[in-house]
Task: inverse folding
């Protein structure tokens, strides 16, 4: 694969440590001396279960969900402008995005990745926001191409949003007009690395 | 149809109009009329003169005034006829053609939005290409290319 110019969003949330290791579990502190005998056993049980649950979440469930989520990014199946052609050809036999678990879905409720592939006009802006809000958490946005990144050749036009990050938070920007499908694949792999790094 | 015939037939159909017809290559001519006679001219063109189909409506910003034009098609002559009218500033406005040619609806919405020409008695005059609440008429000559930050567009949140 050719080296493609993808960059990580400078405004991305500060990356937490890879996998949260729980040193001091935030179990409610139990004043054992203050407890009466019949209160002791339920309190101890509660402390134990919450401790286990938290450890299990930190050590087991979160990494598994992170691994599963970042390897099965489902982008929203839509196209805004010419970049959508490259988006489509990314799923063709030559580039085969499905080997990375990237399968376009037609409903935003089944998606966790929005690839903004084209020029965003002010007319479509609030529809884009609605689609983004319909996607379940956790969700990510890739701004594909110069138009989605900063308005592209239409930056000073009267009808074009100068960058989709005016509307929704963007995780990865991909340069190019249009970016080649390889660049888009590289952007998706960059996003996967980012998700792993953030431990989302 | 020669332009003199057209002028004569128009005057017969709508005696109150002072419209003039001048030749325009490739068409039946260019019919200029004062804006206050719009509805009579539209009715005559659609009825007696047989221009049944309204193909487009557009506007021009001539800086000292604005012009609205209509391109109508006749199946009899198989040619277009251009109707045009000069609208004085400020507040250029004209009677809507939707009562005569219902297809004027979208075209007039676009002309209103882009060139800032008002259409009286339009059934549904709202934005077509731009979001609701857009404050500019982008095809006016006074509209400059903006730095994106200057273009305040409120995204309606639904
Ligand atoms: S970045 Fe270029 S190819 Fe992509 S939508 Fe904009 S103009 Fe089209």
Result:
């Amino acid at each position: 694969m050719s080296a493609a110019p993808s960059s990580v969003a400078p405004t991305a949330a500060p990356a937490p440590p890879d996998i949260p290791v729980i040193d001091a579990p935030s179990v409610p502190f139990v004043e054992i001396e203050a407890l009466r005998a019949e209160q002791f056993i339920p309190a101890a049980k509660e402390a134990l279960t919450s401790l286990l649950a938290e450890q299990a979440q930190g050590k087991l469930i979160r990494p598994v969900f992170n691994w599963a989520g970042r390897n099965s990014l489902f982008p929203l199946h839509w196209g805004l402008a010419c970049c959508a052609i490259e988006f489509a050809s990314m799923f063709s036999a030559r580039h085969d995005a499905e080997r990375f678990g990237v399968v376009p879905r037609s409903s935003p409720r089944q998606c966790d990745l929005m690839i903004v592939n084209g020029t965003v006009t002010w007319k479509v802006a609030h529809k884009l926001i609605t689609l983004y809000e319909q996607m379940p958490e956790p969700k990510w946005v890739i701004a594909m191409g110069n138009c989605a990144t900063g308005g592209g050749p239409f930056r000073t036009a009267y009808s074009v949003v100068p960058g989709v990050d005016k509307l929704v938070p963007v995780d990865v920007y991909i340069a190019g007009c249009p970016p080649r499908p390889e660049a888009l694949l590289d952007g998706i792999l960059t996003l996967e690395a980012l998700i792993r790094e953030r431990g989302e | 149809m020669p332009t003199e015939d057209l002028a004569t037939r128009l005057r017969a159909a709508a005696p109150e109009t002072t419209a003039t017809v001048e030749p325009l290559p490739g068409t039946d001519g260019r019919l200029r009329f004062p804006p206050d006679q719009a509805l009579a001219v539209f009715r005559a063109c659609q009825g007696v003169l047989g221009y049944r189909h309204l193909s487009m409506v557009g506007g021009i910003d001539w800086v000292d005034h604005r012009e609205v034009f209509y391109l109508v098609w006749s199946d009899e002559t198989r040619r277009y006829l251009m109707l045009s009218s000069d609208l004085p500033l400020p507040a250029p406005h004209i009677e809507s053609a939707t009562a005569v040619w219902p297809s004027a609806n979208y075209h007039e919405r676009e002309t209103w939005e882009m060139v800032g020409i008002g259409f009286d008695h339009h059934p549904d005059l709202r934005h077509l290409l731009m979001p609701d609440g857009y404050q500019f008429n982008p095809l006016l000559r006074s509209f400059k290319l903006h730095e994106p930050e200057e273009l305040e567009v409120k995204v309606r949140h639904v």
